[in-house]
C-alpha cells in the first residue's frame, strides 16, 4: 500500500473514530462530577484499615496487590523478551578488546562531568531507597523508587565509563536482583495465604500511620518491587547499551 | 469547559495514531504509540477527579478530607509500567530490524512488504 493511500484511508477512519470517541466521551459525567462510590469508600477506610497514608501505594501493594503481581510479571517477562531479542546473533561478536572500546568511545566525557556523576550516584541511590521505603506514607513506592535506584549505576555510564558500570552493577547481580524481587513479591502474597489464609491479605503488624514501619506488608512488597524494577531496568538498559557499544556485526571493526 | 479533558484524551489518541500511520521511521512510530497510550492517562485521571478533591495522600491532610479516586491513579501507574515495557520490546525489535534491513523505514523492511 502506498503512503498516500494509507494516509487517505487513515483520514476516513480517523474521522469516524473521532466522532465515535467524542460521542462516547460526551456521555461521561462532566469533569469533576465524580459518580463512583468505590473511590470515596477507599478514601474513607484506607488510613483506618491499612494504616497507610498514601492510598495509591496502599491500593497498589495491598488492596489491589494481586493485580500488581500480574503487572510485575509483565515487566519481568518483557525484560526477558528484550534480552531474547537483543541476544548475540550468529554473525555477531563482542568487541575483543573491551577496555579499548571504553577509552575509544567516551573521550568526550569531561572531568567535570565525571566528577558530577560521581557525586550524583550516592544522591540518586539515597533518593531511590527513600522513595521505595516511604511509599506507604508519601507519594512513591517500589515502581517509582526502583527506576530512580536504577539510575544510580547509569550515572557511571554518564561519566563515560560504560564498562566500569558493568563492574559496579554486574549483569549477574542485576539479573539475580530482578529475579529475587519478582519472587519476593510473590512470597509476600504467599505469606498472606500461610499466616491469615488469604492470598495477598496483609499479615504483618500495621503499626502507627505515618511511621516508617507501618502498614504491614506494604513496605515489604514495595521493597521487593523496587528491587525487581531497578534490576529489570538495568538489564534492559545494558542490553541496549551493549548493542551500541560492544556488539559488532562481522565486517564492522 | 468540563468536556475539555476528555477532548484532550481523544485528540492525543488520534494524533498518536496519525503519527504511527504516517511514520517513515520505526523509532518515531514507537514514540507515537506512547502518545496514544498517554491518552489513557488523561482519560483515567479525568474520570477519577472530583471537584475540590485533594490528592489521596492523607499524610498531611485530615483523614476526612475530600479526595480524588485513588483507583484510577493506580491504574495509571500500571499503564506507565506497561508503556515502558512495550516500548522497550518494540525498540529492541527496531534495533534488530535495522541490523537486518539496514533501514528504519517501515516501507523498506522486506519482511513487512512481501
What is the topology, as strand order, of the major beta sheet of chain A? 1-2
- Helical amount of chain A: 55-70%
Whole-number mean pLDDT of chain A: 80
Number of helices of chain B: 4
The amount of helix of chain B comes to 55-70%
- Average pLDDT metric of chain B: 85
Biggest sheet architecture of chain B: none
Largest inter-chain contact set: A-B, 57 and 55 residues
How many angstroms does the end-to-end distance of chain B come to? Answer: 49 Å
State the oligomer. heterodimer
Number of strands of chain B: 0
Instruction: Let me know the number of strands of chain A.
Output: 2
Strand content of chain A: under 5%
Uncertain parts of chain A: none
Beta-strand level of the residues of chain B, as a percent range?
Answer: under 5%
Rg result of chain B: 19 Å
Q: Over the alpha carbons, how many angstroms does the gyration radius of chain A reach?
A: 23 Å
What sequence of helices (H) and strands (E) makes up the elements of chain A?
Answer: HHHHEHHHHHHE
Structural class computed from helices and strand pairing of chain A? mainly alpha
Morphology of chain B: elongated
Please characterize this protein's 3D structure.
- The complex is a heterodimer of chains A (about 250) and B (about 110).
- Chain A has ten helices and two strands, in the order H-H-H-H-E-H-H-H-H-H-H-E.
- Chain A is an all-alpha fold and about 250 residues long.
- Chain A has a two-stranded antiparallel ribbon with strand order 1-2.
- With about 110 residues, chain B is mainly α.
- Chain B is elongated, with a radius of gyration of 19 Å.
- The model of chain B has no long low-confidence stretch (mean pLDDT about 85).
- The interface between A and B is large, with 57 and 55 residues.
List the helices and strands and how they pair.
The complex is a heterodimer of chains A (253) and B (114).
Chain A: H1 3-26, H2 38-50, H3 55-63, H4 65-85, E1 92-94, H5 98-105, H6 111-133, H7 142-158, H8 162-168, H9 171-195, H10 217-245, E2 247-249
Antiparallel strand pairs in A: 1-2
Chain B: H1 4-22, H2 26-48, H3 70-101, H4 110-113
